[in-house]
Amino acid sequence: MSVSVEIGDLTHVEADAVVNAANSMLLGGGGVDGAIHAAAGPRLLEACRRLRNTSHRDGLDIGDAVATPAFDLPASWVIHTVGPNLHRGQDDPARLASCFARSLDVAAELDVRSVAFPAVSAGAFGWPAADVARIAVATCRSWLAEHPAASIEDIRFVVLDERARDVFEAALRAG
């Protein structure tokens, strides 16, 4: 099992599942969410609308996760999770940790081997990258230790630049 970080574009990553930093409505948005919806094509929005019309009528709660097919992405699955928005006073680190843990729960249910995460809640949601990296790395490592029989072998954090990579690498070294 490995946990690593790389600079890249999440929409081009070859992994069994990519995690989408979604909004609670699951209908696309900006940033990572918008990029994933654009790259996956219109069937992703249709799949999200079906979720909204069935199991997630009120949207997806902060810290929860749900999967759809990835359609035109190189991945097989998109795991949507809603991170806490620090600008809205959503500052509980447990809610952020839940994004990573619930995404891994869903990935394990799908029997995937590799999962690629963005820096959920960093950027537009205002969480400092160092906090996101520390929480993400600790949560993923803890999840792997608690689920040794899970199919997941490779967890990657895919970030946009060297600064974010350095922050995640520091978190990986510290843990």
How is this structure best described in words?
- 40% of the residues lie in helices and 19% in strands.
- The chain is an alpha/beta fold and 175 residues long.
- It has a single domain, classed as Leucine Aminopeptidase, subunit E, domain 1 (3-Layer(aba) Sandwich).
- It has a 6-stranded mixed β-sheet, sandwiched between helices.
- Strand 3 (65-69) and strand 4 (77-82) form a beta hairpin.
- It is globular, with a radius of gyration of 15 Å.
- Pfam families: Macro (PF01661).
Count the E strands. Answer: 6
Count of alpha/pi helices: 5
Strand order of the largest sheet: 1-6-5-2-4-3
The dominant shape is globular
CATH class (first level) name: Alpha Beta
Architecture blueprint of SSEs:
Blueprint: E1 2-7, E2 17-22, H1 31-40, H2 42-53, E3 65-69, E4 77-82, H3 93-109, E5 114-117, H4 129-146, E6 154-159, H5 162-174
Parallel strand pairs: 1-6, 2-4, 2-5, 5-6
Antiparallel strand pairs: 3-4
Helix pairs in contact: 3-4, 4-5
Domain Macro: 1-175
Pfam family, one: Macro
InterPro entries: Macro_dom, Macro_dom-like
Could you provide a short overview of the structure?
With 175 residues, this protein is of the alpha/beta class. The chain is 40% helix and 19% strand.
Descriptive tags:
single chain, 175 residues, alpha/beta, Leucine Aminopeptidase, subunit E, domain 1, six-stranded mixed β-sheet, 19% strand, globular
